[in-house]
Amino acid sequence: MPRQPGFNLAIGPCLVVEVMTECEPCARMDALHDGLFAALLPDWRGGFRGRVVADGEIEIGNAIRIL
Question: Where are the domains of the chain?
Fold first, then answer.
């Protein structure tokens, strides 16, 4: 995955999301699973904030593509 904002991510056949900013891992992640915060610290592994460019339904198992 690219390491800077500005790219589009397609999920399933129709949904497209523009990646706007990175979301850093936070301590709340350990509330979900102990050790998750530390595991996600290096190399942009927290997540991102995005804007829907093309609406669409997604399902478990859909392909994810960088456009």
Answer: 8-66
